[in-house]
Amino acid sequence: MSWNAGPLIEELIKENRVISLVGSGGKTTLLCFLAMQAMKIPTGAEPCGYAEGAAPVWKACGAEFVPQKMSRKRRVLMTTTTKLYLPKRRLLCETEEDCAREWRSGRAALLGRPAKPGEGDVRKLCAPEPELLTAMIRKAECSVIEADGARMLPMKYPAAHEPALHPETDTVLAVIGMSALGQRLCDCCFRWALSGLPGEHRVTEEDVVRLLASEQGGRKAVARRRYLAVLNQCDTEQLQRSAERILRELRERYGIAGLWSAFSAAEREEGQYAL
How many angstroms separate the CA atoms of 67 and 54, rounded? Predict the structure, then answer.
């Protein structure tokens, strides 16, 4: 992955417990990547039971006082409040016991249920029951949630019922695919009619700025939560320069922080991440 804000990502996954992704243009790939990064954050010390014939032992990643080399990875949860394409080579967790098993094995838990006939694309993962979702978010140390859908298009305007932010979300990342630049709105944007622009309109940098700054766009339902803009699909130097200009406008005009990112073709195969 290429990006312009490595420290920002590290800060994000260290300081925020429930991160929801909205928008379009690479949310599932970003979800897997953030979960992978969150798994690398050291856990705090915690009791882990008794060693045979000894006093209780404690584990803390890198701590010198640990009597035995016992450590664990963070309890990271990947899930959705809508639907997402099931990442390849991932075991699906449908119960609390499934999540606990994955965490004990040092893996991120992917929580949801398979789509049933009549629920659309059967390759997609559907949201778990609300009670189970809330319980697992509270047990996890970091949760990354896909909270929006965009029909695989790089840009979208949210409908009245979107996004589906879980109440415990503390950070919202609004994602947009920079491949939309220069394309006709009707070709690259989900729910483009909500923009008020003609379908033949070609997407500009200013359109992206306005969408990400709008409380009827990327910031919809964010309220007082932390908000960041993510410009994905910056696969060329030209798109990276465009992204830098957009981020500067967001920062200077609206006080919105953000970053750009670019995943390789291999990285876009969601299952490549060793979670």
Answer: 10
CA 146 – CA 141 distance, rounded (Å): 17
Residue 83 is encoded by which pair of tokens?
A: 């639907």
Contact 199, 173 (CB under 8 A): no
How many angstroms separate the CA atoms of 8 and 259, rounded?
8
Helices 130-139/96-104 angle, 10° precision: 30
Question: What whole-number distance in Å separates Cα of residue 67 and Cα of residue 75?
Answer: 23
Alpha-carbon span 155 to 197, nearest angstrom: 14
Distance CA 200, CA 213 (A): 23
N residues, the chain: 275
191-246 per-position pLDDT tens digit: 999 999 999 999 999 999 999 999 999 999 999 999 999 999 999 999 999 999 99
pLDDT tens sequence across 75-127: 999 999 999 887 776 789 999 999 999 999 999 999 999 888 887 777 889 99
Report residue 76 as tokens.
């990271």
Cα 81-84-89 angle, rounded to 5 deg: 125
Residue position matching structure tokens 């997407």: 203
Residue 223 Ramachandran class (φ > 0 left, ψ -120 to 50 alpha, else beta): left
